[in-house]
Amino acid sequence: MAKTISLKACIRKEVGRNAVKSLRGSGRIPAVIYGKKGTQPIELNGRDLYEALHSAHTENLLVDLKLQVEGGEQTKLAFLQDVQHDPLKDTVVHVDLHEISPDEKLHAEVPIREVGEPEGVRSGGGLLETPLRRLRVECLPKDLPEEIEVPVAHLKIGDSIHVSDIVAPAGVLILNPKGQTVAAVSAPVKEEEVVAAATTEVTQPEVIKEKKVEGSPAAAGDAKAGSKPAAAAAKPPAGKK
């Protein structure tokens, strides 16, 4: 099942670019928690967040959030919806959380993990194709899987697995179309086909030169360049008058 991490948070009273920059400078991470009553800006401890994320081996994380408020502490269960990183420093700059209820079903995408080496690859030189890498699921938070295993060792060349063939974990409903292909083993490419593709002559496109139309500036220019001046043509031969 999906891992649950514990984080402490405080209400973020100031928003805006300058406030967020100052917050990150102090080692805190700005975040937003989305719920039925709207959105609420919060802040997380940067070190606690880094440790929690680095210890996780899945994209789907449930967060046991301890929110410090006036007069005490509120406990919220949230789904880690998005983690934004700085593209240059690779540090976390913002986190989105979605508040959920333990008895309310959620929708999430779960990675697929192929188990085993297909027979068609092992003995026939085929190629395993995996056009679908994630499955959309519906389940209670406690039933959310880290991944869904799909056995592929029995696949021969030409065989395939569809969504309808997958046995979902208990309490999990797969929402993808049943006919969608999850994995397939294709035949190996013959050496003759590779050679033929490599030696296929590439036909160069024919270059059509622009036809000069009589009376156009270009045609007139060529006519002038190829003719002698009238004065030179009328000049008599040397020695004669």
Uncertain stretches of 5 or more adjacent residues: 223-237
pLDDT averaged residue by residue: 83
CATH superfamily of the largest domain: Ribosomal Protein L25, Chain P
Output the strand order for the largest sheet: 1-3-2-6-5-4
- Summed up, the domain count is 2
The name of the CATH topology of the largest domain is Ribosomal Protein L25, Chain P
Helical percentage: 10-25%
How many DSSP helices? 6
Question: What can you tell me about this protein's structure?
Answer:
By secondary structure, the protein is an alpha+beta fold. The protein folds into two domains: 3-100, Ribosomal Protein L25, Chain P; 107-194, Ribosomal protein L25, C-terminal domain (RNA Polymerase Alpha Subunit, Chain A, domain 2, Beta Complex), CATH 2.170.120. The chain is 19% helix and 38% strand. It has helices at 17-25, 46-54, 119-122, 191-198, 217-226, 230-234, and strands at residues 3-11, 28-35, 38-45, 61-69, 72-85, 92-100, 106-115, 127-129, 134-139, 148-151, 160-162, 173-174, 181-186. It has a six-stranded mixed beta barrel. The chain has a four-stranded mixed sheet with strand order 10-7-9-12, with no helix packed on it. β5 and β6 (92-100) form a beta hairpin. It is elongated, with a radius of gyration of 35 Å. The N and C termini lie far apart (115 Å). Residues 223-237 have low confidence and may be disordered.
